[in-house]
Amino acid sequence: MKNIFFILFCLLFNVAIAQPDSLFLKNKEEKEKGPEWIQKNKFSIDLNEVTFVNWNAGGSNSISALVGYQFSYNYSDKYFFWKNSLVAGYGVNGQQGREARKTTDVIDVNSNFGFSPNEKSNWFYSARFNFKTQFAEGYQYPNTSRPISKFMAPGYLFFGGGMEYGRNIDELSLYLSPITLKATFVLDDNLANAGKFGVTPAVLDVDGNVIIPGEHSRTEAGILITNSYQMEIAQNIIAKNLVSVYSDYINNFGNIDVDWQMNLNFKVNSFVRATLESHLKYDDDVKTTVPSATVEGEFDEAGAKVQWKQFLGIGFAVDF
User: Fold this and answer.
1) Which of 100, 40, 42 lies closest to 68, judged by CA?
2) Short-list 147, 42, 25, CA closest to 85
3) Are 222 and 180 in contact, with CB atoms under 8 Å apart?
4) Residue 181 sits in a domain of what CATH number?
5) Model-level pTM?
6) pLDDT averaged over consecutive 10-residue blocks of the chain (320 residues)?
7) Which residues does residue 42 pair with via DSSP β-bridges, in sequence order?
8) Is residue 31 in some structural domain?
9) Contacting residues for 36 by C-beta, under 8 A, at least 6 apart
10) Which of 32, 135, 183, 313 is the most exposed place for a label (fewest CB within 10 A)?
């Protein structure tokens, strides 16, 4: 029940913010556009460095860097649109006296195809594909002896079809898919045997030896709803928002997975910009861990919790 109230709040918040400045309430002249392909590339670097020399207030030297790449290749005409994108990013933070730690790690591939039989209609028949994973191993710091995630562990694939509403899909859309397939991949034996990310764990004997290995994938079928918008809230300040909710029909229907991103991009000039990002997630299949009360150095599985990541960076970006 708490999950349902939470997701209703997310949707109402997104719709309420999107509508006042949306294209549907603006009186702008719409120019006739012919078929066109548009390709965009963006490479960015964000840096943060702090150094202390005889600083009487104390402090620890640190440096952090985030490298990102965005690619899009989109087609549109009177009746069709086809949007394709790749987002990749990797960031690390190093502090004096400790190992370098990962701060960002993402690979996100999207493809969205839509068709409207009426050029004046705002409704599209739409199909979507999404794939997400990461580059490198992740750890529950300071413990770096046992990774808690790896490349394709997990990996997520979504594919489904439905209806999408939006006059300009790049700036505002509402997508509803009554049937979306979700596949979770855990292509690491240790993580699969432990049953991480919702896959079936291994069957062990009394000595802890594996009798039946854990499964490396999990398939679900459910309903997916997304709401996205982009708007210029002030000069040189652009807000981008995407909220996605998913519920599986077969396994615990009513448990809702939430993925909510809100980004603010501040443009200083053609190359320098600042970014404020917020990313909130809840996935019932991703369980947290707590230190074991009986075995020192071990961890016990706990329930799923809301995950949140925030990033503020100033750096360089090049569009080409």
Assistant:
1) 42
2) 42
3) yes
4) 2.40.230
5) 0.83
6) 46 43 39 78 90 80 93 92 96 90 96 91 93 95 91 97 82 92 96 94 92 96 94 91 94 88 90 90 82 65 84 86
7) 70, 319
8) no
9) 75, 76, 77
10) 32
